Known about the structure:
This protein has 289 residues and is mainly beta. It has helices at residues 118-124, 127-130, 153-161, and strands spanning 2-3, 10-18, 23-29, 36-41, 44-47, 70-72, 76-80, 84-89, 96-100, 105-113, 133-145, 185-187, 191-199, 202-209, 215-220, 225-231, 244-246, 249-254, 259-266. The protein has a 7-stranded antiparallel sheet with strand order 1-2-11-8-7-4-5, with helices on one face. The chain has a 4-stranded antiparallel sheet with strand order 3-10-9-6, with no helix packed on it. Strands 12-15-18-17 form a 4-stranded antiparallel sheet, with no helix packed on it. The longest helix is centred in the middle third of the chain and has 9 residues, at 153-161. It is globular, with a radius of gyration of 23 Å.
Amino acid sequence: VSLHHTTDRVDFSAHIHSTGGSGYFAANVIPGFDGKVHTGVPFGAEPRDLSREPWVDGTDPNEELLRKNVFYGHHWVDYSDGQKGLTLLAAEGKRGFLFDPERRSLDHVLLMTIVPRGEMEISFSNPYFKGQGDHSFHYSLLPHGGDWREARCAQRAQENNHPIHAGRVIGGSAASLPASKSFLDLKPDTMAVTSWLWRDGAYELRLYETSGNGGPVAVRLPGTIAACRAVDFNGRAMARPVVTLSGDAAHFTAQPWEIVTLRFTLGRGGPGRGAKYGQASPYRDKMMP
């Protein structure tokens, strides 16, 4: 268990040795107050009202699809009454959860183990299928005030799964940039960047709105923006959103949960455009997460 002195987050590392069988391992938390469940989904978030799920009344408790109150989430699950809450930041790649509304108990399913039955399962059976051996999982709890929006759950989950690592790539004596330099500034913090692509002589930046509220957005880059427009996933121009330029910033209004791709070119001195910022990056033809 790790406690941070600068971040209101508790990290857990669980190491499990499984001998197999039929069942599952889970991390469990009991908030102790009445609240509602929300969970992350790709490019958004959704409430999870388990009373409205079409459960199947199965007879085998080890059948995952028949187990009552099981649901799936993307990176995080939050339990909040609007005034306070607790977010579970999921182990990377693990998206199964179970919530018992009577006990107010939330399980994060880390590992399922299966005893092969039938010809098909037996033919595909292997130590991984059976869940045997040593396993390591890393997940976190985030206590917070307010609801999941105020706690910025989507952003905190992304920070947890994809932390920033800094490193020096050139000697300090030859550096021309200041000690602190922001390559990309995006406001508000409810907007998330998913990719940066160089294509056909221009940069394409893809981002999305994570809170379901929408509103004005500003994207600031390290250099004067010569042109910017909204495009679709294939790079074709779109009429909306309308983008306006102001020096090194592009402005537009995002709709709730909207995914926006901006295609822009920079003026002289932008990234990869001359001696001020160094030579063009050898990685500029790659999709960068």
